[in-house]
Amino acid sequence: MARILITGCSSGIGRATAVELAKRGHEVVATARRPETIEDLDVAMRLALDVVDDASVRAAVAGAGDVDVLVNNAGYGVVGPVERLPLDDVRRMFETNVFGAWRMIQAVLPAMRARGSGVIVNVSSLAGRVSSPLNGGYSGSKYALEAVSEALHYEVGHFGIRVVVVEPGRFATRFGETEQRFALDGPPYDELDRLWHEAQAKLPTGAEAGSEPPGPEVVAVAIADAIEDDTTPLRRPVGVDAEMVVATRASMDDATFEATMREVLGLDW
Q1: 69: which strand partners?
Q2: Sheet harboring 161-168: ordered strands across?
Q3: pLDDT tens, position by position, for the chain (269 residues)?
Q4: Is residue 269 part of a domain?
Q5: Domain holding 169: CATH number?
Q6: How much is the pTM?
Q7: Residue 113 lies in a domain
Q8: Which residue segment(s) compose the domain that 69 sits in?
């Protein structure tokens, strides 16, 4: 049994992961910016935590005690064309998606290193491996998280600490409800927004045609398995779409991959 601190447990992947790990007998410390959103979770401990606030991070880590596993899940997205995304909003997203995870790593890593063991799971995205139209801001934050994670993997394996990057594809969560959209209500990018929405629906998710994608429980199982299996590789794509796109991307040069995806998705923008 491990003591596992999870960020962003109010909904979606974070909540499902807390439930899955508690079910497996682990001592789960569930956290959220608004602690009232996790009051119903049946876990060992529930704490308030805002990953962009140094004092909040210090207080939560102190309250959690010795953390064997950190799951950096807290994050959100901004959507819009690179030309028109407000940079202040992009910075705020990076503060959560990148620096929030980094802040948590710095808070728990010294104790892990001293003990000679630990696991850090950073929840990235398919968008952290392959960017897409109107997703430059969010993909940029996840690419950055991937880079930090890879460097960390090289640095701390020597001390008995594992790093895993989980890369979910499209799942049915409330992520879209917190997503911020910019410059897509009119020209010149509203048409691209419509076309890309239609194109995304053509990617396989493992669900029957016309059905909603699978729920976040699939990702939760992958995270729990990665924590318990010390042979898990650094990167772990999750979902039919993520596995397919990552494998396709790895087998092709840029031009061939673009042409292939345009054909598969029917995107002629």
Answers
A1: 4, 119
A2: 45-48, 27-32, 3-6, 69-72, 118-123, 161-168, 235-238
A3: 899 999 999 999 999 999 999 999 999 999 999 999 999 999 999 999 999 999 999 999 999 999 999 999 999 999 999 999 999 999 999 999 999 999 999 999 999 999 999 999 999 999 999 999 999 999 999 999 999 999 999 999 999 999 999 999 999 887 777 889 999 999 999 999 999 999 988 888 876 656 778 899 999 999 999 999 999 999 999 999 999 999 999 999 999 999 999 999 999 99
A4: no
A5: 3.40.50.720
A6: 0.96
A7: yes
A8: 3-189+213-239
Of 80, 26, 37, 66, residue with least CA distance to 228: 26
User: Number of folded domains in the chain?
Assistant: 1
Active site residues: 124, 138, 142
Look up residue 92 and give its two tokens.
Answer: 């705020």
204 belongs to a structural domain = no
Any domain includes 119: yes
